[in-house]
Task: structure prediction
Amino acid sequence: MSNDAEAPAIQRRGLMLVLSSPSGAGKTTLSRGLLDNDSQIRLSVSCTTRAKRPGEQDDVDYRFLDTASFRGMVDRGEFLEYAQVFGNYYGTPRAAVEAALSAGKDVLFDIDWQGTQQLRDKVPSDLVTVFILPPSTRDLEKRLLTRAQDPKDIVAQRMAKAADEMSHYAEYDYVVINRNIGTSLDRIKAILTAERLKRDRQPGLSDFVKALREGR
Result:
């Protein structure tokens, strides 16, 4: 009879999974799908100075701050990364992320290429990056218009910026073309599984192998 159910879990360090894309390519939907299907990953709640959208909750979707408070956190070195996008600031608080990684939990980031670049400079060994591309420019514009969360001038700005954002795809470890949400989600899950199994992310392996060699 197998004793797999009784075997202790091997100690693992958490990883930081970044999903980036131009607005409207589906990263938010994919992020929610991943969080709903995997209890070992949690969303990094970013701070932002932008206005709260309908249905959003403070400390759940974002931590909403005024500009002075945000700048104070920058000055104190409390962000792993931060950026200004469309006139608003966004940033990732350092303390909560570091605590999660040490506890063997993975942290999901919904950030742009600028934030990803900052994370790579600071914590390259903990980082796994995925860029989400839309199947076409027409499809991207349709999604932005259908979303109906932004006025048409903001949609036009987002479309103008999309070409520049997509030019950064080569800076990412993986690229997923989001033709279908279910298929794309399965691919991201496969990436996450493979990255979790990397030897360098399992510091408990040495003790496990030592026990095996000793017949324990």
